[in-house]
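A favour, since you know our structure tokens better than I do. Just paste the record in under my message, thanks.
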Amino acid sequence: MNEFEFIKMPVEFARLFQVNMESIGVHFKSLPSKAINNKAFYSLAKITFPSESAEEFDFSVILKKNGWHGVRDQMTSQYLHFAKYGKYAKKLDQTLIHELVDLEEDFSNYSVQGFSRAYLLGFYFKLWQLQGESPVYANEAFSIIKDKKFQSLFEASANRLAQTDIMILLVLHFRDYLGEQKLRSLIASSKGFTALYNELDSSMKNLFMRNIARYLYSVGDEKMMISILPQR
């Protein structure tokens, strides 16, 4: 397993991926104000939806008109276009997000509806491929996650998860460290995170925690680090 990179992302936009948008309601009145009032987020939204960019630009109106997935996909496509070409698109290229949509669908049976965290993980990897120092490794890791054999490791899980991205990264690391056969056996025996973590040596544990931290900092979810630290 190689080192993950810190990737510059539109953090306030990424934080919406971590919210259960289905619980917010059709009028989107309880959207996180820190996100929608952020200048960079506001600019990205106005560039993506120029026909809606009147003086009284209201993001909740755009959400109601296009739906969360429609807004999310268009803004993500716009940001990826800028990352790839250095300029914003006049016409959005939806092929840039196909892998993200597919990844979300692949893990839909293991995810709590309303969250976009598998999609967020795909967004991170796509930006790593476009902006990172080691895009080849980013592509390699992303390819593993998209592989059906890797995804089959989740079939033994009985519960849907809100933090699907974290679970995917946990399994990615444990698979690399322990081997697929041993990992399948441990998952089938209902071993929890701490038991799996204790199977690692100190160097593996350190790399694992660094990689998870870099991902969480990239997507603006630093608080999650506290909840995934192993109990002593």
User: Anything to note?
Assistant: The chain has one domain: 11-222.
